[in-house]
């Protein structure tokens, strides 16, 4: 497993492994303290000699010394391990924040490039009659028109341009490109006679520029 600052980035699995090791050490420390408790309750600092300075014969000195030594070693290991856990969590958190910032920056860049690449609309659909050729083609209210057959923002002068294209395309599909919800949408619209007025059944208004 990579140490913090090593070659491989820390993973959640690494942190879980460290935490498991920490739990094991804590269990070992607890066992050592229980062993000391079993030896007449001697802790880490009670004297191991009697009043005359002789080794106490009411306890297992070897066991007590070993338990005390193990506790000191294990506590040092525990301290070092806790530092590793902290650093690993910090690394994970920093990487998560970095990823979030990167994702946000990418989303923003994509949105901006989309806006930049969208052509200039010259007119807008403000009504569509149900059952009309416009409705059947999928044209919707608030669609912003960027291309209507041969008409676009560069050559559009007034709505007569659109009317002329419609009259010359009766019964033939027209390629219409609109901006809908910030995206470019292509619609195949065939101007033709129907139950209502005109050849389209929608109302188009020029956009103020």
UniProtKB/TrEMBL annotation:
GO terms for biological process: proteasome regulatory particle assembly. Keywords: Chaperone, Coiled coil. Residues 71-115 form a coiled coil. GO terms for cellular component: cytoplasm; nucleus. Residues 90-182 form the PDZ domain. It comes from the Eukaryota. InterPro entries: Nas2_N, PDZ, PDZ_6, PDZ_sf, PSMD9. Belongs to the proteasome subunit p27 family. Interacts with PSMC3. Part of a transient complex (modulator) containing PSMD9, PSMC6 and PSMC3 formed during the assembly of the 26S proteasome. Acts as a chaperone during the assembly of the 26S proteasome, specifically of the base subcomplex of the PA700/19S regulatory complex (RC). During the base subcomplex assembly is part of an intermediate PSMD9:PSMC6:PSMC3 module, also known as modulator trimer complex; PSMD9 is released during the further base assembly process. This is 26S proteasome non-ATPase regulatory subunit 9. It comes from Oxyruncus cristatus.
